Amino acid sequence: MTASEALFTNGASPGGLSSTNPLRDVRDRRLPRVAGPCGLVIFGVTGDLSRKKLMPAIYDLANRGLLPPGFALVGFARRDWEDQDFAQVVHDAVKQHARTPFRDEVWKQLSEGIRFVSGEFGDKQAFETLRETIRDLDEKRGTQGNHAFYLSVPPKFFPDVVRQLKETGLADGPEHAWRRVVIEKPFGHDLASAQELQRIVGEVFDPSSVFRIDHYLGKETVQNILALRFANEMFEPIWNRGYVDHVQITMAEDVGIGGRAGYYDGIGAARDVIQNHLLQLLALTAMEEPVSFDARDLRLEKLKVLNATHAGKDISRSTARGQYVRGWQGGELVPGYLEEEGIPADSITDTYAAVQLEIETRRWAGVPWYLRTGKRLGRRVTEIAVVFHRAPHLPFSRNQVEELGQNALVMRIQPDEGMTVRFGSKVPGTSMEVRDVTMDFAYGESFTESSPEAYERLILDVLLGDPPLFPRHEEVEASWRILDPIEEHWESHGKPDTYPAGTWGPRSSDEMLARNGHVWRRP
Amino acid sequence: MNIDLTDTTSSKIFGALLDARRRSGSPAMGAVLTLVIVTDEQGHYDALKAATSASREHPSRILVVVARPGRGASRLDAEVRTSGETGPGEVVLLRLHGELSDHPDSVVLPLLLPDAPVVVWWPGTAPEDPAHHPLGMMAQRRITDSASCQSPISELAKRRSGYSGGDTDLSWTRLTPWRTLLAGALDHPAAPITGAKVAAEAESPSAELLALWLGSRLGVEVERATTDGPGITGVHLWSDGGGVDIERGDGRVAQIKVPGSPERSVALPRRPLSELLAEELRRLDADDVYGEVLGLVSPADGSVGAGA
Ligand SMILES: NC(=O)c1ccc[n+]([C@@H]2O[C@H](COP(=O)([O-])OP(=O)(O)OC[C@H]3O[C@@H](n4cnc5c(N)ncnc54)[C@H](OP(=O)(O)O)[C@@H]3O)[C@@H](O)[C@H]2O)c1
């Protein structure tokens, strides 16, 4: 168990495990948390997410011995498949994408519980068949009525599926059994649609049975933010406006929109990434210390800080957006956004978005929080950089510290997870000259090559019913409240600036920081 | 990179490590612990292989201490291997000749990573009292392996009499998947367990520990049965509601039967040394549960009494 996991587990018995089990002992920390008897139903198994992330993660969990005996995996899609055909699809996905080595005995265990149900989302009969399949699994595999429904489908089908689950009685299991639903982002495209989605889901499932996946929260390094901040003495005293000059949160992608034009156009970078991932990172970095790492206490603090966060008054000066145009990226000439297949020539969708946010709390008043994200940027990287004030007095002459910048603490989330500290150090030689140096802690190197994929952690937590890593609808709505005014402003004010693919975004974004005397880090 | 140093000292070895690290251009080290392996010429290859593989999960400086006692003069030979084929950490193979073989601590102490935990592992023969062995005294955690010794069961009794917090034995580590499965089977309220049986190959220290653990936790007599193995082949827990049945004949896949559910198969493979070691390195504080179970081993010959 990593430090962060310890923080989250907090010694409590997870998800309804019997505390009277004589074989369990809180001191016996070798025994991992294993899900009780249950099954997982995936809607949209033919999709990208399911093949690349979900099915491999399930295999990896089985391989690590974290799934219960008899675990069942049911696929639902509009294909004329038999169970074996689907098993073959899972097999191929696992072989290609799983993190842990392929073992026949693990595959045997898993494949015995694989089923397939064929149908459309509007097809009531298919859902009846699903119910029969589940009942049969309860009998033959001992899943005891516990099932999670994973909606790996385009969001416009959420209402259909949820309604069908309700109407066929699938949403309610037998007594003592649980039914859970897992939904993927986007959770709406603005506050109103998010509330509508919540209304639909909330009518059928209890809030504690709804698991919203923000896969960033399943990443070890994101959880490590909490360990870093709250398990150490040396960071928290300086974690405030007295020492912090500003904060930069970046999630950059080098890819374009790929084949996802239909999803992406009209949504854009801010809704796709800032609303969920970046605001969650902001919340974890900025929040006050929760009294415990229980889901409730953690959520309370995140909500408090999100509710205190808003864009600057003059939105045109505190935001920037861009759209990539044809350019050279990493040695390749790539098309511009408007040239991508399926994108209307007059699209004003932002593929780059940067916002300056303010957090109105005693801790952060006056400290700008810059969030940026984009497609086709310099390289793929996600990081949080906390940049500190310059020393108030420097007992050096000007030219001695000419090359000294500001101290910074950078939490690197991906791809090379870890932490960097930047500080001034004397340049070797006779004269006194101070220059920035960096000190690196590589997380992936210091712990576990076998650090689990985010989806492994999240799927296991769904099956255990352990909610701390899943945003609740209150957080989703608080985030839309921050973003909605910005989107409204953009809608009615012209179109995005352009930036050549492979660069770090439009000039307007640099100007936005320059107005405060800041510059973007080159991550 | 490999550097051979003959008739050397710890400070020269330290210099070689530092040098190699500078030359590779990365002065910072990500290592989280020092792993000292105490072994002999026959054992060091396999042990080192397991340790380097485990060090991918727990980057370590690995010090392999090979004692070559004898009449010859005292001499220290070392082989320093850094990054590349050995994985992320550093490996130093130390051969202690002559009288020096009685003073391994003097060689190892200067080579420990500053401020990082120390783990000592005896893959084969282990001292009677690991915590008071000169190398054991430096360590937070001391790993032994009863199963690799001549007579494993009496070895377990020795482990008991020499136990200190922080000791651990791989025969206990090997049980984790079994214990996980058994604990999972009892997670959901069932009728109280009234009896138990553990079946395993002869001379299995893991089976001894499992029987003792079950007996003390469930408060029941645990029967023992000897089979052809490999390892533990079955565990049965009786209760009025039917009980739990786990059979594993091939050392890979088990069949499990619990009340109210059909029989199912579950992967329960015997794990390689590298995985056992990686599990051990995950936690560096005392394993109290192991200490308690070990305390139940009978001192004379380590058997559980009647029915064995
Ligand atoms: N891919 C990612 O990396 C990623 C990341 C974050 C969030 N998400 C979210 O995860 C979900 C799934 O993503 P995805 O990329 O896997 O989507 P996808 O590749 O478009 O797959 C969608 C799935 O839905 C099925 N489907 C679509 N329309 C249907 C209909 N009318 N009736 C029955 N089935 C239908 C498709 O089946 P057919 O094969 O029959 O069309 C397919 O299996 C979405 O909510 C997405 O927003 C995905």
Q: Decide which structural class fits the backbone of chain B.
A: alpha/beta
Main sheet: strand order of chain B? 1-4-5-3-2-6-7-8
- Whole-number total of structural domains of chain B: 2
**CATH architecture classification name of the largest domain in chain A:** 2-Layer Sandwich
Low-pLDDT stretches of chain A are: 1-18
Q: Which CATH class of the largest domain in chain A is shown?
A: Alpha Beta
Number of strands of chain A: 18
Bin the strand percentage of chain A: 15-25%
Number of strands of chain B: 14
Helicity range of the residues of chain B?
25-40%
What is the distance, rounded to the nearest whole angstrom, between the alpha carbons of the first and last residues of chain A? 30 Å
Largest sheet of chain B: 8 strands, mixed
How many domain modules of chain A? 2
What would you give as the CATH superfamily of the largest domain in chain A? Answer: Dihydrodipicolinate Reductase, domain 2
Beta strand % of chain B: 25-35%
Tally of separate helices of chain A: 16
Mean pLDDT across the residues of chain A is: 90
Based on CA atoms alone, the radius of gyration of chain A comes out at: 24 Å
